[in-house]
Design a protein that fits this description.
Blueprint: H1 2-27, H2 30-42, E1 46-52, E2 84-89, E3 94-98, H3 104-115, E4 125-127, H4 133-136, E5 152-156, H5 158-166, H6 170-175, E6 179-183, E7 190-193, E8 196-202, E9 213-218, E10 223-227, H7 233-236, H8 238-247, E11 250-254, H9 276-282, H10 288-291, E12 294-297, H11 311-318, E13 322-323, E14 329-331
The structure holds zinc ion (3 copies).
Length: 332
């Protein structure tokens, strides 16, 4: 028995050692030297990182027996995470999380890895758009049963803040000071430092527990609009969203559903999200440069934009738009 242990130890050591030496030899190749340098030294300014692209319920979705999910229960796709963006200010060594999703544990680790300088996964602030499960329930991981964090700044609109402060289990995060709520106001700029600010923009959506906002993010060189959930563009104003597109450099926009086929040919006008095929119409008058700013995001498990090289992905790109993918990085 003991000899077996020693033997397996020796084997493990050999394996570890051989893996290590392989890594060492590849590390001296020019390519990896360049990428190492750019990772640790050249990064500066503000970066936006896509941490997730899927609608609240994730993918696979609970109890889905359809083709979109069935294989994913046995073989999960690591890129299928609930919608979230990260901001890294390399100059100030700070990180901010937009949305606290059920996938937040992995997403905060991804954000920390992207920042390179941070010692812990805890971000310098969390911004919430609204009170639907995909957008705030990750806050639970800051609580007593998980990391028992100390006063993580959470930026929330007034109704959202009241909801968190008055309904359990969220109120416990507040009373135990795991989170510190910062009330934000629509159209009111939150200056995070001299080169990065965020402004909440009120949008129409199913507002049972909170109002719903999108965020306008301004970095030292570029700006972004993030609206993961919204009712039809016509309800907010097609002119309004087109004006926003002209104003920003990137726009991550609600694309929960692609077309009628996805919802068994029910009437898409009845479902309160802008279908991608409807967005094509809303944005058809925009110039080529403006269309290229749009990244569709917040995909329902049924949305073909989640499928690599699907007709939907090709249609979006051929019309001059883009779709968000986990891991994409943008310099702001
Ligand atoms: Zn959502
Ligand atoms: Zn499904
Ligand atoms: Zn929602």
């Amino acid at each position: 028995m003991k000899i077996n242990h020693i033997l397996s130890f020796a084997l493990l050591f050999t394996l570890l050692f051989s893996c290590q030496s392989e890594q060492d030899s590849s590390a001296i190749e020019a390519d990896s030297l360049v990428s190492n340098v750019s990772h640790t030294l050249v990064q500066n300014g503000v970066e936006l990182i896509v941490l997730g692209t899927v609608q609240d319920a994730g993918s696979p979705q609970i109890n889905c027996k359809k083709e979109c999910c069935i294989a994913l229960f046995d073989q999960p796709d690591e890129s299928r995470k609930v919608v979230s963006l990260g901001l890294v200010d390399h100059d100030h060594q700070t990180r901010y999380l937009l949305e606290a999703t059920p996938d937040m544990v992995q997403q905060l680790n991804d954000l920390q890895n992207a920042a390179a300088v941070a010692k812990s996964d805890v971000p310098d602030g969390v911004f919430l758009t609204h009170g639907h499960i995909g957008h705030y329930t990750g806050l639970m991981y800051f609580g007593k049963e998980a990391m028992n964090a100390e006063q993580v700044p959470v930026f929330a609109m007034p109704r959202m803040a009241d909801f968190l402060m008055t309904s359990g289990p969220w109120s416990q995060l507040v009373t135990r000071e795991n989170i510190a709520i910062n009330r934000i106001k629509q159209d009111s700029v939150i200056q995070l430092n001299q080169q990065l600010n965020i402004t909440p923009i009120l949008v129409p959506h199913r507002d049972e527990y909170s109002e719903t906002v999108g965020f306008y993010i301004v970095g030292p060189n570029k700006s972004t609009l993030f609206i993961p959930d919204i009712d039809k563009w016509t309800k907010w104003g097609e002119e309004k969203i087109c004006e926003w597109i002209k104003r920003v450099d990137y726009a991550f926009l609600d694309a929960t559903f692609y077309d009628a086929e996805e919802i068994n040919n029910r009437d898409i006008t009845e479902i309160p999200h802008p279908f991608v095929v409807e967005s094509f119409k809303t944005f058809e008058k925009l110039s080529k440069e403006e269309k290229a700013k749009i990244y569709f995001i917040h995909f329902n498990h049924t949305n073909p934009l989640l499928l690599k090289a699907s007709n939907a992905q090709m249609e979006v790109e051929s019309k001059g738009f883009h779709f968000a993918e986990k891991g994409q990085r943008f310099s702001l």
